[in-house]
Write a structure and sequence with these properties.
Layout (H helix, E strand, L loop, with lengths): L1 H8 L12 H18 L4 H25 L4 H27 L5 H33 L3 H12 L10 H11 L1
Helix pairs in contact: 2-3, 2-5, 3-4, 4-5
Length: 174
């Protein structure tokens, strides 16, 4: 029982997950942000910028996981766009950390690159979902043919039409 119970409650290790899995990538991104924050100097400026980076960098994965449970395409897109905002903000804080001389650019380069790659992936996801929604909203050729056929049938006169207009309209149907 001990082995089965511990296997069911064990947290996945970072190395167990596939590189293509966005849940895994956003989780690894967050863990790298946590390690970066821990490595920052203990001076006030570094800690202030680091906390900002920690907040937004770790929320990317949370937004993505919320999107995985979205109730609609619109909800999904909204949550992914939230993750994109957090990614953009985390890139900004990394730029400030380097710009302020708090950490060497070379040390942040791969994390910065991962942020850009995640951004590109999520932008592509949003575009595909929006394109799919537009395709669903466009009428099919059968629907267009049916609407053209319906438009060829004259409609009854408007209720507020004058008696003369109603009579002309009635005569047009005969």
């Amino acid at each position: 029982m001990g082995d089965d119970a511990s296997a069911m409650t064990a947290w996945p290790s970072v190395g167990e997950e596939s590189d293509t899995d966005l849940k895994a990538r956003t989780r690894r991104y967050a863990l790298r942000i946590v390690r970066l924050y821990s490595a920052l100097p203990k001076m006030t400026e570094a800690q202030v910028l680091g906390r900002q980076l920690l907040r937004c960098g770790t929320s990317v994965g949370a937004h993505y996981r919320e999107a995985c449970r979205a109730k609609s395409d619109a909800d999904f897109v909204s949550k992914i766009e939230g993750a994109l905002q957090e990614l953009e903000e985390s890139l900004y804080w990394m730029e400030l950390i380097v710009g302020a001389g708090l950490m060497a650019e070379a040390r942040l380069q791969s994390l910065y690159q991962e942020g850009h790659e995640l951004t590109a992936i999520l932008v592509t996801v949003v575009r595909k979902v929006k394109r799919r929604r537009r395709m669903r909203a466009q009428p099919s050729s059968r629907q267009l043919q049916a609407s053209v056929a319906d438009s060829n049938v004259s409609s009854p006169p408007a209720r507020d039409a004058s008696p003369a207009q109603r009579q002309r309209s009635d005569g047009a149907r005969d």
